[in-house]
Write a structure and sequence with these properties.
Layout (H helix, E strand, L loop, with lengths): L1 H12 L11 H8 L3 H13 L3 E4 L3 E4 L5 E4 L6 H5 L4 H8 L4 E12 L2 H7 L6 E11 L2 E11 H4 L14 H8 L4 E12 L2 H6 L7 E11 L4 E10 L3 E4 L7
Helix pairs in contact: 1-3
């Protein structure tokens, strides 16, 4: 519904901020030039987005949604993995949010062209794919697809499980001798496609951040490529860059 999409986009863009009242039914009737019934149907869609809450006798108010602070300079520290913390869950908890991860697919897949190039294998080579959908306070905010070389993962049964154990897949890889040297991330901001917007409950064309991460070992091998799409209004990216040689 176009009216619902417009209101949701206003919330996501910060036009309607946390704590703001959504305009009343009569105000929306005047603004959009439609009937009260149409506005009520639109508000059902807006409430279903999880972005507002209805207070008896007051109307609908925009929820407080502090973004997850994505500290790329230290989110993959070994000490966090050894403590059994996965990066997204730890960051969400720090922001006061309730996080959930839904596993959409785990299994063999022909490597997509970009992932294959980064992994150093021919396009179409069989890899292990792990696709997840991340929620924050019940709202989908991120999709992530990991691609791992088959010769690396075939002897690590935990990587085929929905829950690979404390510290996530990076901890299991290091348990089996693949010690990490660095993680390299490439980010691009762009509008969401129609299918991406639908999966993340965004308005068509809403801004997203496309992040691709390579996990490189001390042996110089990329053992995971993670292709991630993030709702841009849900994350703040923080980097620490050394100034010395």
């Amino acid at each position: 519904m176009q009216i619902a999409d417009d209101l949701v986009q206003q919330i996501r863009a910060g036009v309607l901020k946390a704590g703001d009242m959504v305009p009343s039914e009569s105000e929306l009737v005047d603004r959009y030039g439609v009937s009260g019934g149409t506005i009520r149907k639109a508000m059902v869609e807006v409430r279903a987005s999880g972005l507002v809450e209805t207070r008896h006798g007051k109307g609908s108010i925009v929820k407080n949604r502090p973004p997850v602070r994505h500290r790329s300079s230290d989110r993959f520290r070994r000490s966090l993995r050894q403590g059994g913390q996965a990066a997204y869950l730890a960051e969400s908890a720090q922001s006061g949010a309730t996080a959930k991860v839904s596993v959409l697919y785990i299994g063999p897949m022909d490597a997509p062209e970009d992932a294959a190039e980064r992994l150093g294998v021919p396009t179409g080579t069989q890899v292990l794919a792990r696709r997840r959908l991340y929620f924050r306070n019940g709202t989908p905010v991120e999709t992530a697809s990991s691609y791992l070389p088959w010769d690396v993962v075939k002897e690590i049964p935990e990587l085929f499980a929905e829950n690979p154990g404390g510290g996530g897949i990076y901890a299991r890889l290091e348990d089996h001798g693949h010690e990490f040297a660095e993680f390299v991330e490439t980010l691009q901001a762009r509008p969401a496609s129609k299918s991406e917007a639908s999966e993340l409950a965004l308005s068509p064309g809403a801004p997203v951040v496309h992040l691709i991460r390579e996990a490189r070992t001390t042996a110089g091998r990329v053992v995971e490529v993670c292709d991630t799409l993030m709702a841009a209004d849900q994350f703040v990216f923080e980097y620490r860059i050394p100034a010395d040689d």
